[in-house]
Task: inverse folding
């Protein structure tokens, strides 16, 4: 399972280190196999929730 976290708006670093493990920050997102929210939450990170893609409903007339 993959966990995703959203960086704060003003976060500019390209990586973050938690417990000796380095995680890359891409487009304001951090992805990890482990739940590292406990370490990221105090510095303003939030859990990232994928928004479902909106289905385009076509109607035939």
Result:
């Amino acid at each position: 399972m993959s966990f995703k976290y959203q960086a704060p708006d003003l976060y500019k670093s390209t990586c973050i280190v938690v417990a000796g493990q380095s995680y890359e920050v891409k487009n304001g997102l951090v992805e990890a196999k482990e739940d590292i929210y406990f370490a990221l939450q105090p510095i303003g990170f939030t859990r990232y929730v994928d928004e479902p893609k909106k289905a385009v409903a076509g109607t035939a007339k």
Notes: The helical segments are 37-40.
